[in-house]
């Protein structure tokens, strides 16, 4: 395990090696230290230490079943919904343990978009106003402003401004996924977790969501899980490669895709397994 | 060949079931319509005097009684039943659901005469002591019926809640919503039509129930103006008098059934309109 972790040293909070100058932990928004996640006796994530920088997109790639979703869902404690799931290790948000926050506060600050667009069976407006409402904003004009702002940031205000009272289920898959992103933005999160957000979308819609992610990067720390390597290469600044629960390699996306240090990584990105 | 035979057979069974319903409706209407025509529709449903031996056939007090008892029972049963289903679906630990659900389903199997008996022994004296009056009352009937429809309401609304895709729940929780907020803002609206279906079936059971109601309602032929007064429902009227009725009297009981039939159809239609999913 030590030998594997040595490639990650630049990310660890303590020893700061200058070898990867862009990856300073000083500006890491969210990080895990020796994170282990279990489902009953099965260990799905093994000693993962990874830091996600601010204002950047970090992609987690790896074959299906390697623990990407599990890692992501432990970051906002969504894995607790699974009976028998537990974690060992440390997760830090802005340098302080996420378990020191209430789970509600944590999820507010660390938002999540799911694989299948899960817009609520409610009107478009109510979908976006949902977050602000549960967190205590009930003023009509305030909500109106939030809804417009969030729909604008996902570039769909013009498309749906006349359909705010229609059920969100009438929208296309892409629109619903955008809506889910807008709904998440409405609670003003700091980190955006996206679990294969494009896997239910066609290639054109995928490219447009990727554009959206690039524009959101200006303000947020974004973590995207994908098993689509082209997507990771296109959209992310940093990439982590996972295999069987272990974070095999982490680096800038350019480095991972051009000069991977691990043979497993090389095999995976050259399509030899997965 | 065998396929065809099975298909034909099933078709036959399906049609005979429908035919049976139409036959029953036909028999009721054949007996009831002439009497209503003779008495006059308005006099039949809007007059308060029921004295078959003297040729007075007014069933208004019973219509009011049936509606009152049924609506109150549905309010009681729906409130308790939905709360219980919500608890079982979202908050109860798994093991307790495995025990509680079969127990609740068992409640549906208890004969109505037993419910009525418990009503007479426990509920009636309680109402008499607490609120005064005879005890046999609208309130007693509504409470017993409310309890009787619980299994139906709980089982069906629980299924409706459990059928809501977990994706919606996750979406809400991931926004920092509490479990309660998630339940009442996302899960309940998503399960809405199933829950209303549960209420409709409960209502159907309540308005049709006879034995337990006869035992606790008091069956007086007066207009029920207070919840503590005795009341006679449409079903009770038929059950109580059919043993000795003949001629016009018997026809009037069929006509009572006819009115019940129409009321149930109207209530179901209203409920279906409310339950229609908004798109
Ligand atoms: N709820 C669960 N209960 C038990 N095992 C699970 C559960 N969810 C995932 N796993 C297991 O954990 C491992 C990682 O799963 P996951 O994180 O979903 O992988 P990925 O997202 O990389 O495809 C898999 O082997 C999977 O079978
Ligand atoms: Mg996954």
Write the layout of secondary structure elements.
The complex is a heterodimer of chains A (274) and B (279).
Chain A: H1 2-6, E1 28-39, E2 42-53, E3 57-61, H2 68-75, E4 85-93, E5 96-97, H3 103-109, E6 110-113, H4 124-134, H5 140-153, H6 157-160, H7 173-185, E7 191-195, H8 203-216, E8 221-225, H9 229-235, E9 238-243, E10 246-252, H10 253-258, H11 263-269
Parallel strand pairs in A: 3-8, 3-9, 6-7, 7-8
Antiparallel strand pairs in A: 1-2, 1-4, 4-5, 9-10
Helix pairs in contact in A: 4-5, 4-7, 5-7
Chain B: H1 2-39, H2 41-46, E1 50-51, E2 56-57, H3 60-91, H4 94-107, H5 112-131, H6 138-148, H7 150-162, H8 166-174, H9 179-190, H10 192-208, H11 211-217, H12 234-241, H13 247-275
Magnesium ion (MG) is lined by residues 68-69, 195 of chain A.
Describe the fold and architecture.
The complex is a heterodimer of chains A (274) and B (279). Chain A has 274 residues and is an alpha/beta fold. Helices cover 35% and strands 24% of the residues of chain A. Chain A has a domain of 173 residues: P-loop containing nucleotide triphosphate hydrolases (Rossmann fold), CATH 3.40.50.300. In chain A, the strands form 2 sheets. In chain A, strands 6-7-8-3-9-10 form a 6-stranded mixed β-sheet, sandwiched between helices. In chain A, strands 2-1-4-5 form a 4-stranded antiparallel β-sheet, covered by helices on one side. In chain A, a hairpin with a 2-residue loop joins strand 1 and strand 2. In chain A, helix 4 packs across helix 5, helix 4 runs parallel beside helix 7 and helix 5 crosses helix 7. Chain B folds into 2 domains: 45 residues; 216 residues, MetI-like fold. Chain B has 13 helices and 2 strands, in the order ααββααααααααααα. Chain B has a two-stranded antiparallel ribbon with strand order 1-2. In chain B, helix 3 crosses helix 7, helix 4 packs antiparallel against helix 7 and helix 5 crosses helix 6. The longest helix of chain B has 38 residues. The model of chain B has no long low-confidence stretch (mean pLDDT 92). Classes of the chains: A alpha/beta (274), B mainly alpha (279). The interface between A and B is medium-sized, with 30 and 20 residues. The complex binds adenosine-5'-diphosphate and magnesium ion (MG). The site of adenosine-5'-diphosphate has 12 residues of chain A, from strand 2 and helix 2. Adenosine-5'-diphosphate (ADP) binds next to strand 2 and helix 2 of chain A.
């Amino acid at each position: 395990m030590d030998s594997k972790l040595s490639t990650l040293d630049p990310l660890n909070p303590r020893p700061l090696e200058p070898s990867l100058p862009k990856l300073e932990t000083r500006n890491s928004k969210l990080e895990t230290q020796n994170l282990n996640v279990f489902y009953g006796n099965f260990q799905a994530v093994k000693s993962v230490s990874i830091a996600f920088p601010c204002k950047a997109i970090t992609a987690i790639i790896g074959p299906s079943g390697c623990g990407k979703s599990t890692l992501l869902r432990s970051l906002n404690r969504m894995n607790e919904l699974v009976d028998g799931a537990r974690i060992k290790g440390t997760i830090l948000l802005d340098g302080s343990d996420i378990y020191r926050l209430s789970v509600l506060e944590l999820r507010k600050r660390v938002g999540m978009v799911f694989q299948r667009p899960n817009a609520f069976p409610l009107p478009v407006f109510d979908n976006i106003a949902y977050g602000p409402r549960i967190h205590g904003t009930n003023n009509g004009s305030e909500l109106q402003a939030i809804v417009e702002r969030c729909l604008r940031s996902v570039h769909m205000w013009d498309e749906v401004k006349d359909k705010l009272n229609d059920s969100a289920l009438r929208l296309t898959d892409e629109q619903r996924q955008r809506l889910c992103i807008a709904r998440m933005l409405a609670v003003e999160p700091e980190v955006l977790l996206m679990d294969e957000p494009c896997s239910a979308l066609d290639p054109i819609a995928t490219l447009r969501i990727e554009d959206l992610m690039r524009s959101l990067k200006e303000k947020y720390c974004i973590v995207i899980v994908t098993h689509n390597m082209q997507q990771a290469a296109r959209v992310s600044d940093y990439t982590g490669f996972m295999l069987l629960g272990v974070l095999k390699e982490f680096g800038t996306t350019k480095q991972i895709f051009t000069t991977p240090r691990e043979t497993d990584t090389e095999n995976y990105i050259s399509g030899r397994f997965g | 060949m065998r396929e065809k035979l099975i298909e034909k057979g099933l078709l036959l069974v399906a049609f005979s079931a429908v035919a049976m319903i139409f036959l029953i409706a036909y028999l009721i209407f054949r007996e009831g319509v002439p009497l209503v025509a003779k008495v006059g529709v308005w006099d039949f449903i809007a007059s308060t005097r029921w004295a078959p031996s003297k040729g007075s056939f007014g069933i208004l007090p019973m219509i009011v009684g049936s509606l009152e008892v049924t609506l109150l029972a549905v309010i009681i049963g729906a409130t308790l039943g939905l709360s219980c289903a919500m608890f079982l679906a979202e908050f109860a630990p798994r093991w307790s659901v495995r025990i509680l659900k079969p127990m609740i389903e068992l409640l549906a199997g208890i004969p109505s005469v037993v419910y009525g008996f418990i009503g007479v022994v426990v509920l009636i004296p309680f109402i008499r002591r607490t609120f005064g009056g005879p005890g046999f009352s609208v309130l007693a009937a509504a409470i017993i019926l409310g309890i009787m429809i619980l299994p139906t309401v709980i089982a069906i609304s629980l299924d409706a809640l459990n059928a809501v895709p977990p994706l919606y729940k996750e979406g809400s929780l991931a926004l920092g919503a509490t479990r309660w907020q998630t339940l009442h803002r996302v899960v309940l609206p998503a399960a809405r039509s199933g829950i209303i279906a549960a209420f409709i079936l409960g209502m159907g059971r309540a308005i049709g129930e006879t034995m337990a109601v006869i035992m606790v309602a008091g069956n007086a032929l007066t207009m029920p103006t207070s919840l503590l007064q005795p009341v006679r429902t449409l079903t009770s009227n038929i059950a109580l008098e059919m043993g000795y009725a003949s001629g016009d009297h018997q026809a009037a009981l069929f006509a009572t059934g006819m009115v019940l039939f129409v009321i149930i159809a109207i209530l179901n239609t209203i409920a279906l309109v409310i339950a229609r999913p908004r798109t």
